[in-house]
From TrEMBL:
This protein's name: ATP-binding cassette domain-containing protein
A Pfam family reported for this protein in Swiss-Prot or TrEMBL: ABC_tran
SUPFAM superfamilies associated with the record: P-loop containing nucleoside triphosphate hydrolases
Keyword ATP-binding appears in the UniProt entry: yes
Residue ranges occupied by any ABC transporter domain in the UniProt entry: 28-261
SMART domains in the record: AAA (SM00382)
InterPro entries the record matches: AAA+_ATPase, ABC_transporter-like_ATP-bd, ABC_transporter_ATP-binding, P-loop_NTPase
Organism: Halalkalibacter oceani
Gene Ontology MF annotations: ATP binding; ATP hydrolysis activity
Amino acid sequence: MDIKQNIIQVTNLRKEFKSYSSRSGLTGAFRDLLTRNYKVMAAVDDISLTIKQGEMVGYIGENGAGKSTTIKMLTGILTPTSGTVLVNGMNPHKEREQFVRTIGVVFGQRSQLWWDIAVQESFRLLKKVYRVSDEDYNSHMSHVIETLDIGPLLDKPVRKLSLGQRMRCELAAALIHNPPLLFLDEPTIGLDVLVKLKIREFLKEINETYNTTILLTTHDLSDIEALCERVVLLDEGKIVYDGRLDQLQAGAVEGKQVEFEFIEPVAAANLPQLPQVYWEQKDATTWLAQLNGDERAVSKLISTVIEANPISNVRMNKVSTEEMIRKIYEEGMAIS
């Protein structure tokens, strides 16, 4: 497959659901038996999206923004109300049997492993389901098992695994057939830091080794920062940003802090008072400048401060992705 080929191609994708409401009182209950009140809600509202092979894309948004609904349509679980979906060159809903052999899926709150049997028995069953040869299974899975450090877990029933252990096994199970496309829906939910780091490093490795395309949906934005150069931001079923994460961060100068460490204590009256700059004292020699404005305003602030007062250090405190996304939703910040 050409690396420039679109592995996911979505055009005007829409998914509607009916939301029913009940009338009050006994009379209302009888009326509901005959006719129901409902309104049509668009969980995904005419979105268009392309993802190329080898990309690692973060698909983010608030609860109810339409992320999981999109994933379910891309994996063939839900049928779109309208629009077209092509994933790995196939329609996920019409070519389902062939299609599922080309994707891997990990849902953080659902398991594809059998609860009461050993992990390796689940792997063997999935191997038969996906019709993976012994040679391909042994060569590929030996690397996966070693990298995820799940060798000691293979003989244990799934029900006896901790959450972190189970999620590593779930990830391995999704890769038994070495799919070119991997969907991850909240894969690190509830996991401790060390397990998260191990999973992130593994995902980077399979992306580099096999050119695996990864679409990651998560509320843990540190996962996005660690793995994805590109983010797609969803709000009320619509895509409000699709581009590089660093460009989104660069456009969010508002809320950045410039931290100045002065050689000697400085009074507030001696600090330059510039438009859209708000000062906060951290200690006797350290001040934080909260800045609203573009990058030229940042440069002007730093040069003005340095001219007026000798400093020992200056640093830019980067806005976290989580804080940036929160502001986008709370304040309706315009992004392009």
